[in-house]
Amino acid sequence: MTSLLQSLRNLVTLRWVTGRNAVIAVPSLFLAAAFLVPFLIVLRISLSDMDTAGSPFGGLLSYVDGIIVLKVKIANYLFIAADELYLLTYLSSIKYATITTAICLFIGYPFAYFMARAKPSIRPVLMMLVMLPFWTSFLLRVYAWKGILANHGLLNDLLIALGVVTEPVQMMNTSFSLVVGMVYAYLPFMILPLYANLVKMDLRFLEAAADLGATPLQAFWRITVPLSKSGIIAGAMLVFIPSVGEYVIPELLGGPETLMIGRVLWDEYFTNNDWAMASSVTVLVILLILVPMAIFNKYKTDQHAGEKA
Amino acid sequence: MNGRTFLQRWFGRGWLSLGYLFLYLPIIVLIVFSFNSSRQDMVWTGFSLHWYQELMSDTEIISGFGLSLKIAFMSATSSVVLGTFAAFALVNYQRFNGRTLFSSMVSAPLVMPEVIIGLSLLLMLVSMQKVFGFPERGVATIWLGHTLLGMAYAAVVVQSRLQEMSKSLSEAAMDLGCRAHQVFFLVTLPNITQALASAWLLTFTLSLDDVVLSAFLSGPGSTTMPLVIFSRARLGLDPRVNAIAALTILVVTVAVIVYAVMLARSDRRRRRQLSAAYTIDQE
Amino acid sequence: MTIATPAASASDASAPFLLIDQLVKEFDGVRAVNDISVTINKGEIFALLGSSGCGKSTLLRMLAGFETPTSGRIALAGNSIVDVPPHQRPINMMFQSYALFPHLSVWDNIAFGLRRDGLPKAEVAARVEQMLALVQLGQYAKRKPHQLSGGQQQRVALARSLAKRPQLLLLDEPLGALDKKLRERTQMELVNIIEQVGVTCVMVTHDQDEAMSMATRIAVMSEGRILQVGAPGEIYETPNCRFVADFIGSVNLFDGRITQDEPDHVVIATPDGEHYVSHGITGNLGMDVSVAVRPEKIGIQTAPPALEERASPKEHGYNCAQGVIVAMAYFGNETSYHVRLDSGTVVKVSRTNAARHDAARLEREQRVWVWWDGADIVVLTS
């Protein structure tokens, strides 16, 4: 009982207005307003009934004849769950995200590895060369691939000139162009955390391994790779999670066969004006990426903890 | 580096070269074809500055650019301020109620698909508009979305620098008579200026280049440059876009090179001064 | 250049100034500082000596105010400071890493604390000049810390911590970051400056030589407790337990039992020989004790030692033994011998090389006598 009085007294005497609380409160309030509240609203809308004016403000709660009625419309979710197209689209998004992540890892790991093993004097230059495309517009660079992969584009012209093919190969608006674009855009996101991790690795581990009789390849698989685990996972999550919901690249480089949930979301809102459906799809995407996000959180904080130790 | 075989070294160089080629190919193509004299997709018909001239009179793009700049300035500044608050809290306050939630919310925009963030913000804004009558979608709402995203990036950059900074600097400040806020403004802040600058540049670029959030959050009359480019790109290839690209790349490259040169010079100066100090110390 | 010293000078060395009473600090259930009580006198240089993890740094940080005690009292000049935040304590600390502000010049670093106090500009300037003269860095006033060598940085850190004329100066491993040659020189300079200013000083170190040469009194710490407090000579020659005897310098320890217990002498029988102590001790007949003898107090020669030299009654071969030299280490100024006694124990003897060419040189495998004076024995019961 006394602790309750104490809390009330603290509240009134403004003892809680400390500098420390202010520092935490300012970003928290912004995040609550710009992040938390929107998601709660999305959740609510996804469960609401669209009224005749086309906006979902039929309240969830209503009071009718002395009864408090809670109307939760789960029809949207049921529809999504039953509709084959939606299911296919979700799976397709995950498929492309996974492929992108795998290719980024395949290209990016050796890249980061050789960057980290280069002479210390040229490492900043190598780093800068990776960052430079990142600073130039993402949109423009994706757009460039349209030109390169078009039927009369650079690649086709080259193939024809070399005599590899006689007619232009359809490369645009295919799964191929989509994956190329995705890998291109997300490669730096894989390289940077891997590089940060590998460059801090103590080379003496490898010397010790060599001393104990391991070949360079064995040392690589048994020591370097496991030690860079947190870098691999952080990079993988940084590529995978946004890829699932990517919109711009599928829209510019993808085609009718490349189903991506980002485009579905966009179309539901802008083309169909179906807020409730768009919200439901959103909630399901969030649920989809919750687990990977938790993994990312764990590994990014693990990295910090490891560095502190 | 020692004991690496011939094969290892050349494999490494080969892989890096191919990788860089892949990264830079589109950029080179963009620039080259901005000087193409005809509109034909990718057929080179001759050198011409025609498209740059057209760009000068393209009001849609120019006003879009002005708007994007304005928004980018504002959101970069607000992102850095909020991100620094968040980074400071995460580094210095190891335990507080809701720290995990706070940490997740700060870093979530880094990984979440922008469509999700955009749609959620939009629905909130629309609901608010229905109930309160404001806000109208426009510059302010785009700024809001960009700040949310930028804050996450700024927090990462500033947090990394804060953790690098020695804890004993703030302790020394306290020991010499500083209260908490004085420690921040007199000691912490002067030592993180470089990180603040990079965070600002990073979030500025992010905002300038953003498509999805801007699309969801813009209103009539607030079309940013990326939105203009995007709508044109959807329709087909437009050499004026190439011209913009070339200009952007030029500006960025010059900026990065200038920065790198400045950094190298100050580094050399510092090293010279330090060795001078050590030789004097024999007194 | 005269430095204004506080009213009370070092002659008040006996006046209790800093009182630490039953201080405890717990981290996650582990007691880093475990019930420490000690009094530090005004004007003295007090060293906390111990290996890593013994709690000395935690204790120092509690004095500075960076950690709050779990329980216990700290009083400075009669006033409790436990609830006082660091920026309000009349205490200043010199950090192990110096913690000089990289963005400020030497001048501004030293002036920093003075400006926080709101002193008028002229006075700040005067004090800073005073401090610069004290540490002899006047010509480096405009430089930034990264433009200085390690030794110079340390002097700036010292000047900065003395600028506010604190009542208590804390030193965290002051010589830790310096190389050996610089360390010796700096040791003496540091003590001179501190004594010149007359400030009471608590220092933390793991280096015995540092503590022994710089401090007025030393507290030997282990596992959060203080084992012994005393002047360097006291700690070295009269350790109160095996740990302290072994921690400071080298020592030979013989375990045995008291076989004669008289008011004027005691005899302890050990497997290596019998020890005769020419005074009474607090102990009983039959008690298990350890006999401690320092290596430099042991004589070594090929001929049997004379009775008078061992201060033992005629009839018995006390305080001596025979053995074989199994190892020798030559250090230039002294030589250290490891002698395996006939009983099996290895004894360490060190002998100064007083003359350039030693006529009675000893060799390995040589059979020798080792002996010591009963007055040089310390009997330890714990």
Can I get a quick summary?
Chain A is built from 14 helices and 2 strands; from the N terminus they run H-H-E-E-H-H-H-H-H-H-H-H-H-H-H-H. By secondary structure, chain A is mainly α. In chain A, strand 1 and strand 2 form a beta hairpin.
Keywords:
heterotrimer; B: 283 residues; MetI-like fold; 2 domains; 12 helices; 80% helix; C: 382 residues; alpha+beta; OB fold (Dihydrolipoamide Acetyltransferase, E2P); 6-stranded mixed sheet; 5-stranded antiparallel sheet; 9 helices; 34% strand; elongated
Would you give an account of this structure?
The complex is a heterotrimer of chains A (309), B (283) and C (382). Chain A contains 14 helices and 2 strands, in the order H-H-E-E-H-H-H-H-H-H-H-H-H-H-H-H. Chain A folds into 2 domains: 2-70, no CATH class; 83-308, Orthogonal Bundle (MetI-like fold), CATH 1.10.3720. By secondary structure, chain A is mainly α. In chain A, strands 1-2 form a two-stranded antiparallel sheet. Chain B is mostly helical and 283 residues long. Chain B folds into 2 domains: 27-57 and 240-273, no CATH class; 62-236, Orthogonal Bundle (MetI-like fold). In chain B, 80% of the residues lie in helices and 0% in strands. Chain B has helices at residues 6-34, 50-56, 59-92, 99-111, 114-132, 139-164, 167-175, 180-191, 193-209, 212-217, 225-235, 239-280. The longest helix of chain B has 42 residues, at 239-280. The radius of gyration of chain B is 24 Å and the shape is globular. Chain C is α+β, with helices and mostly antiparallel strands. Chain C has 2 domains: 10-243, 3-Layer(aba) Sandwich (Rossmann fold), CATH 3.40.50; 252-380, Nucleic acid-binding proteins (OB fold (Dihydrolipoamide Acetyltransferase, E2P)). In chain C, the strands form 4 sheets. Chain C has a 6-stranded mixed β-sheet with strand order 6-7-8-3-9-10, with helices on both faces. In chain C, helix 2 crosses helix 3 (121-134), helix 2 (106-116) runs parallel beside helix 4 (150-162) and helix 3 (121-134) crosses helix 4. The radius of gyration of chain C is 25 Å and the shape is elongated. Mean pLDDT of chain C is 87; it is low at 1-13. Chains in contact: A-B, B-C. At the A-B interface, helix 2, helix 4, helix 5, helix 6 and helix 8 of A face helix 1, helix 3, helix 4, helix 5 and helix 6 of B.
